[in-house]
Amino acid sequence: MSVRAAVVRRMDGIDSVRVGQFLVPVGVLVVWQALVGVTSGVAFAGPAATFSALVGGIEAGWLATGLRRTMTELVVAYVLAVVAGLWIGVALGSSDFWSDVFEPILIGTYSIPKVTLFPMFLFVFQLGMDSKIAFGWFHGVFPVAILTMSAMTTVSDEHLKVARSLRLSRWQTFREVIVPSILPGLVIGLRLGFNLTFLGIVLGEMFAAREGLGYTLVEFIAGGQIDRIMAIIVVLVAVAAVVNVGFFALESRLGARERTADIRM
Amino acid sequence: MSEGTLDGATAGLSRTTKVRAVQAAVLVSLVVSVEVGPRTGVVGRTTLIPLSVMVEELLGLLGSGQLTPHIVQTFAAVFGAFALAVVTGVPAGIVLWRVDTLKQVLDPYLLIYYAVPFFAFYPLLISILGLGIAPILAISWGFSVVIVVTNTASGLAQIPEAYTAAGRDMNLSRWQMLRYVYLPASVPYVFTGLKLGFVYALIGTIASEFILAESGLGWLISYNYNNFDVPGMYAAMLLVISLALAVNTVLARVESRLYQRAVA
Fold first, then answer.
1. Exposure pattern of A185-214 as b/e (b: 16+ CB <10 Å)?
2. Which residue of B has its CA nearest to A220?
């Protein structure tokens, strides 16, 4: 292949990637609409029906109420997961010995199906918001702690020595030395932590709750209100997409290269 | 110099032993507290029961055969979904690795795939397919397949240039390249994807059974919870967690063996 051909191909590649990325959502919509035709007779809702259920849900208030409840639980659980995960990760990661001890234990716990433990959260925290927050926290804290811990290896001993000789307080060392060094690895942990907290909250609501979008999802099965189920899914996907796109932008600004999609409940 | 390395080696050895010992201590104290906590009343008996009671209950249920249909149901769903994920995911991964433009187009979407709280689709699938194994197979397949696709694609892309060059020097055909160079060389990487795919299929099955189903181990936990059968619930929980840990340990062992062989 000549150099010119290679260049032309490369340029074509870039353009077609952009166009292709734009076409993916369009393709999803087309397939979704096509499914309406195929499944005629079976209960199913196309894009138009879903959109009107979405608008109707906002006007009637049930969608906004559920969303507010779910988002409140999500934000509280996520903040707690980040604080605890950061603390655990920094504390264990500052010592080679303790990180060697706890890394396999944390990763092992990370890979069991946490959903089975939800009844224990219900026993302790009852049916209200608390159990969902605790369960979401339990999902989110592991990736934050694990990725913080492994990012701590990038903190240079020299920098810590300088901090010690400058007599920086623990908080100052954390803020001025540790956080800037671990940031690229940390943001990945923060993203995965958010995704898992979100999953935990929705799972918890689906199993035992009286409010929230997860609860509404299961409620609508009995009534066969597929358009409303789809409307909720659209809202949940939109929340996840917006937050993750924000994280991707942050990650590429901070130069976090390693992009893993691996999450485990 | 030689003294220094010797020192380092013995220090490293005793350190490894120390790490192992502390790990064992942490795990033992965890197990002991699950046993002692409920016995001494530090944790209420309605919240947690002693581990020995869980084991006893589990062995009783296993012996009486009451668990068998649920084990069969869950295993059928997990292995079914995993088989589907392999059959669809590996070829899709090969295509993605071959057609670079397609990979670039789909990359951001594949990353965002697992960001979506996936089980939100389960009520939709139940509404369409009805309650039973079909929606569970569908959701577990969906949860598992993408990690297989992405790991197959990135695994094939990691093959050292020297291997492909050697294959090309031997004038291998496209098919021969795939059969004798790419696939064998990518086994460890692809296996990582399969390992995660299996774990995801397991999680997907247990979680959907737990939310809403008619049988299965996940269903049994939620059924016993709803019927205040605390020992039965913990027995099922113990079984699921032990199974998950065993599967993880075995697959991780096989994986590290494959990587060692690839290096050797």
1. bbbbbbbbbbbbbbbbbbbbbbbbbebbbb
2. B123
- Point out the least confidently predicted range of A10-24, A219-233, B19-33, B120-134: A10-24
Which residue type does A109 have? T
Q: Which domain holds residue B42?
A: 2-47
Average pLDDT over residues A126-149: 93
Task: Give domain A45-254's CATH architecture.
Answer: Orthogonal Bundle (1.10)
| Residue B27 distance to chain A (closest CA, Å) | 8
Q: ipTM of this predicted complex?
A: 0.86
Pick from B47, B101, B123: CB nearest A217: B123
Mean local confidence (pLDDT), B86-108: 91
DSSP tag of A84: H
Query: Does residue A262 surpass a pLDDT of 50?
Result: no
A176-201 pLDDT, tens digit per residue, is 888 888 888 899 899 999 999 999 99
User: Where do the domains of chain A lie?
Assistant: 1-42, 45-254
Q: Is A40 an 8 Å CB contact of chain B?
A: no
- Rounded Cα gap, residues A192 and B112, in angstroms: 11
Which residues 66-105 of chain A have a CB within 8 Å of chain B? Answer: 97, 100-102, 104-105
